[in-house]
Amino acid sequence: MRLHIDTARLSRIRTFASPVRCQHCGDVMVAPYMSEFVEGGEIRHHWECDACGEASTTSIPLTTH
Fold this sequence. Notes:
With 65 residues, the chain is of the alpha+beta class. The protein has one helix at 7-17, and strands spanning 20-21, 28-29, 34-38, 42-48, 55-61. A hairpin with a 3-residue loop joins strand 3 and strand 4.
């Protein structure tokens, strides 16, 4: 039996699982204060760093290729 790895899917899983760091001070952020689904296939997370208080946004495309 041969193991098949879908690298595109694995990359998307890692995107959800990898820690997010503050773009301003580099501190690890645990959870966004708000998330939203954007029409067209994207999840947008809004963050506020506990260490420096700066706000930032990250997005994850949900496209399937």
